[in-house]
């Protein structure tokens, strides 16, 4: 990506996995189509990998209820009904069974593959790691939040030297003053004697520009922070491939 940060919206350096280089003799991931990747995820790991589904239908990958004679057929049908791939990755096992027609084991395998991919893409922030700025927070939360269907508001607790202590999800739903209340937001910080906090929430639309409601809620939280004596170092809005930083934009 390597796009320059321009407040109020910023695009950090690309943090995706390098899928273009072979690993241990394997083909690069970007040589496979979406259908092929989904077909692999749907395949039954207990079946004989050397068997030919065309000659032995019983060994075909488990996928659609009632049996699919070909993994690619099942993958194409699933992407047509519940895709594309990015949207497919946000589906629950129940949705995959209901919309995509998958059986329970195949739906669970596919969801597990997507969860593993998101975890690998995260830049983990470990307790004790110094807070360095909004890019660090974006790299940690982007993979987990960018495709979330609802707004999630969380707080990152920092100690007196601005080292990460832990995170806590405050609310899930619409970001409104009634849901994101200063009492609930600062309760974990007060309980853990935090020295500072960073707020993070996502925009399901993918556009990280702060809304009037975002600005109003942040202003209200800033007033509470002054009374409590716990500074807010930043408030990040996570979008699709970019973020907004209240601190960089001069809104905090």
Outline the structure in words.
- Strand 5 (232-238) and strand 6 form a beta hairpin.
- The protein has a six-stranded mixed β-sheet, with helices on both faces.
- The protein folds into two domains: 32-120, DNA polymerase, domain 1; 134-245, 3-Layer(aba) Sandwich (Cytidine Deaminase, domain 2), CATH 3.40.140.
- It has helices spanning 34-42, 71-82, 85-88, 93-98, 104-121, 134-145, 182-191, 212-228; strands at residues 9-10, 152-158, 164-172, 196-202, 232-238, 243-245.
- By secondary structure, it is an alpha+beta fold.
- Residues 1-8, 13-25 and 48-69 have low confidence and may be disordered.
- Helix content is 35%, strand content 14%.
- It is elongated.
**Topology as H/E string?**
EHHHHHHEEHEHEE
- Given helix and strand content, the structural type is alpha+beta
Number of domains: 2
The overall average pLDDT, rounded, is 78
Distance between the termini: 27 Å
CATH architecture of the largest domain: 3-Layer(aba) Sandwich
